[in-house]
Amino acid sequence: MPRISRRTYATAAMIGAAGYAVVDTVLQFLPPHYSPISDAESNLAVGPFGWIMNVNFLGRAVTSACAVGALAGLTGGGPLRRSGLVLFGFGGLCSAVLAFFPTDVHPDGEAGLVAHTAAGAVHLTVATVGFLAALAGITTLTGWLWRSGSLSGGRGAAVGFTAVGLAGLAFLGLTIVAAPGMLGLAERICLVGILGWVFFVCREIRGQSELNSR
Q1: What distances in angstroms separate CA 152 from CA 136, 141, 157, 204, one per listed residue?
Q2: What is the DSSP-derived secondary structure letter of residue 105?
Q3: CA 43 to chain centre
Q4: DSSP of 162-186, one letter per residue?
Q5: pLDDT in tens, 183-209
Q6: Domain layout of the chain by residue ranges
Q7: Which tens digits make up the pLDDT trace of 3-59?
Q8: Is Amino-acid biosynthesis tagged as a keyword (predicted)?
Q9: Chain-centre distance of CA 165, in angstroms?
């Protein structure tokens, strides 16, 4: 069986990251019309088109695995890269779990980080751990890229999207204590950081692979 190339992994991760964002956006315009500002992204998996979001959760797990495959093929490994890959891969695995445990949709004005059912409690816990793992993963991998000198053309984007993701995480913490009505926006800023990081880092990997193949 032929070995999957680094370029193939990177291309698949780019398509997956872009596709996830497109599906997430389209679902906002479908019933029951959840707010991207106040409603958690996971709410999109509850309703007549919820199955599409569940497939999207599974797709994000596959995207994460492809990104890990692309990054694992780079030279200059070490404990920092291994830690980052494990964290990011675990974050992707958490996304897959979300597809099987529906979240609890809360009435307007009620804090979103409260579970009322066993499935909702699992979803909330896994989603929280997954976000933290993915953000820790891209932060660690960005540090490795700078330390190892890998992907010189993609390091700036890696830093930028890591900063966006961490800013979203800080904003998410603020919504918990002071602005629950902004929870959805904070989550989506985190996602922009994670998905943007995957897309642009993998684009650089793909570009380098094309140059090396000539």
Answers
A1: 21, 13, 10, 9
A2: P
A3: 16
A4: HHHHHHHHHHHHHHHHT-GGGHHHH
A5: 999 999 999 999 999 999 999 999 987
A6: 3-207
A7: 679 999 999 999 999 999 999 999 999 999 999 999 999 999 999 999 999 999 999
A8: no
A9: 9
